[in-house]
Design goal:
Number of helices: 14
Distance between the termini: 27 Å
Order of helices and strands: HHHHHHHHHHHHHH
Radius of gyration: 19 Å
Number of domains: 1
Bound molecules: zinc ion
Largest sheet: none
Structural class: mainly alpha
Length: about 290
């Protein structure tokens, strides 16, 4: 079987210097940002975090593009994907390929970021080594053929790094360099760690509603940081469900927003797993 597991030794060990340098620089600038607090800078960080993390990564890259939990018109799909590029987690094609590999091979050596290979590795080590975040074309074609066929997605995936630069220029003109420090650098570092915590923490700490074959957990703290993505055990049990928080206390901002988009007629065929109905219908099937 041709997949990412068949990379040769040297490729799997290769250090991704551009990624390592960029992430290090962003962390330094995020520390500098702490000396330039203002309410407007905080607001800039919160708004860009919401756009990138919720609309882009959570609703766009994850629930729509990777798992197709709802249907959206092309313009909205591109818009959500564009919001995702602000999150600087590579383009949609690499993101979706990596994430589909994660679901297909969870907690095995083919999983791009399993804590079985170390907590640090699952959190951020995996983006600095090998090609888990920069797969070759054959792997992309195999795991994200739907997106590879779409020229707009291919183009946006190639130039995803332009969006944060444009955002920096806009924020500079609105609020000066201190707003860039908050709205780009600090927000980016918080956004990265929030997403990375889904890969590390929610495969280590939290509760398990479903006896899935992986170690996924539901973690309210991570869900709060990721607009609902932290209900990760629910998600691994029912990957296609656009609804990750399954009870009233499992707050899921991304799901509420998808329901809102459905209500105003922008998205359709929204699939949300309903725990009550399932429990009544098949009381002993939960662990399946
Ligand atoms: Zn997972
Ligand atoms: Zn997923």
């Amino acid at each position: 079987m041709q997949n990412v597991a068949h990379i040769n030794e040297s490729e799997s060990e290769k250090i991704q210097w551009v990624t390592l340098t960029t992430v290090t620089l962003f962390h330094v600038m995020a520390l500098v940002a702490l000396f330039y607090f203002s309410w407007s800078n905080l607001l800039a960080a919160l708004v860009t975090w919401w756009i990138a993390g919720s609309w882009g990564i959570g609703m766009g890259y994850h629930r729509l593009l990777t798992h197709r939990g709802f249907k959206a018109p092309k313009w909205l799909e591109y818009f959500l994907s564009f919001c995702g590029t602000l999150g600087l987690q590579s383009g949609a094609i690499n993101w979706v390929t990596t994430h589909r590999l994660h679901h297909a091979f969870t907690e095995t050596d083919e999983d791009p970021h399993s804590p079985h290979n170390g907590t640090y590795w699952a959190h951020m080590g995996w983006i600095f080594r090998g090609k888990a975040q920069n797969q070759d074309e054959a792997t992309q074609l195999r795991y994200a053929p739907d997106l590879m066929k779409d020229k707009v997605h291919v183009w946006m995936s190639n130039y995803y790094w332009v969006t944060p630069i444009v955002a920096a220029v806009i924020l500079y003109y609105i609020g000066g360099f201190s707003m860039v420090l908050w709205g780009v650098f600090l927000r980016q570092v918080i956004g990265w760690h929030s997403t990375w915590l889904v890969n590390s923490a929610t495969h280590l700490w939290g509760s398990r509603r479903f006896e899935t074959r992986d170690d996924s957990r539901n973690n309210g703290l991570i869900a709060a940081l990721t607009f609902g993505e932290g209900w990760h055990n629910n998600h691994h049990a029912h990957p296609r469900s656009a609804k990750h928080g399954l009870t009233w206390y499992e707050f899921d901002v991304n799901w509420l927003q998808i329901k809102f988009l459905e209500k105003i007629g922008l998205v359709s065929d929204v699939y949300g797993y309903e725990i009550e109905k399932q429990v009544q219908a098949e009381p002993f099937q939960e662990a399946a």
